[in-house]
Amino acid sequence: MNEKGTKRLRMTASSLDGRDFSNMDLEDADFSFSSLKDINFDGANLRNAKLRFAALDRTTFRNSDLRNADLSFSSLTDVDLTGARVEGANFSFTSQEKSFNWRDLNLIGIIQNQGWIGTVVAVILGATVLYGINAISYFTAEIYFTNEPVRIKLYQYLVSQNVIAGVFTILLTQGITIWLDVFITRTILRHVILSVIVLIMNNLLAIAVYFLFGVTLVDNYRNLYPNEAAQNAPWYWYMWGPIIVANIFYFLSREGKQISRKISDQEFQLLNLEKLKTRAELDALQARINPHFLYNSLNSIASLVHEDPDKAEEMTLLLSKLFRYTTGRKTNDYFDTIENELEMVATYLQVEKVRFGERLRFTVEVTDPALKELHVPKFILQPIVENAIKHGVAKLAEQGAIVVRIYEEDEWLHLCVHDNGPPFSETMGAGYGMRSIQDKLKLLYGDAARLELHNEPRKSVNISIQKSAIIQNQHQGHDPIPAENDPHR
What we know:
GO molecular function, one term: phosphorelay sensor kinase activity
Structural class: alpha+beta
Protein name: Histidine kinase
Keywords: Kinase, Membrane, Transferase, Transmembrane, Transmembrane helix
Organism: Dyadobacter chenhuakuii
């Protein structure tokens, strides 16, 4: 039973390919070890669902709720997650590898297949390669160990001709590959055209080499060994080799490009998946910060309505200005300049000053005006200042002082908030405000940022961010790539 009191759907190890589960409530459902290919989960509620070790190829999750779902060890080829909510979801060890099927025929897929088809193809390929190696060994041994000069010269000629033909065939195939891929759509037709071109060009090459170097050698050999069976083979018998080599080379080169493309696509999709998850987590953090401050401010206004209506009005107008900043600015969703962050903090402190009066004094110090143009995570300072009020100034009978100080030291940007309230307790870092900042810094900068609480030499909260990470983030357009997956780090 789940928390709603309904029985959890359990369909482990089921075959459900192609079903339509759109807009269904599947919270806490268990689809572990199931085949879920081509399924439509659009708009479905899959919160806390278990999709472990599942085949999810070509499945769509558009606008679905996958919060805290477990998709570990699953196959996610061509999955559509447009508009899905994935915060808290587990995508550990997911894969995009395709199993063998006739619609997507490829040599590697066939060989990797454990059935009889893969075995037969592997045996044929192995026998062909071994046959070719043994043929090379035979002719090499004949050249080195025979004492017959006519035979040695003929074999040297044949080996040289085959090497020239092999090099020519590969270069020719490479030269026309692009043309085949661009102008010929059907794969079988590409191989037919390639075979015809290779046949004609290799014949021309063989004729040219024969008349340049081989006429005398071949005539001498025929005169000395008139009854050898190999002399009776038709000319086209020796043309199969270049045609087979050309087609195998062309096939493998196309397979290699497809594999490289699949790897690149997989990396790109996984990166987008991580970015999507990071955006969802940042949205969740940011959405919780704003109401958190709103509740505190409204409680302050409510306490002033009867005691001091003028102050309540002033505080309401300041609060309106503050929320115009948070909701009306056309800046990036996750970053803003230090100058704008300081303006927002100053407005927040003015709101609190209405309540505390002369008990609250605050100053803002920026050692270098150029630092104001740097972009930092949005709402990174407000929760710290709020904690300084709540756990510092509010506990003092005398005047409280808050100092916001911005400076650069050893290529690190420091955002410090000092207050003269009681020292931090050991559990101070466990509050939601501090945790939200730590989570945001971890998501956006990884090890290039840290949050520290100090009681000595004076009480302060210090956010440190490597300046290079800030500048790099600005150059990337502030796209929230998880720090550990950022390809530029």
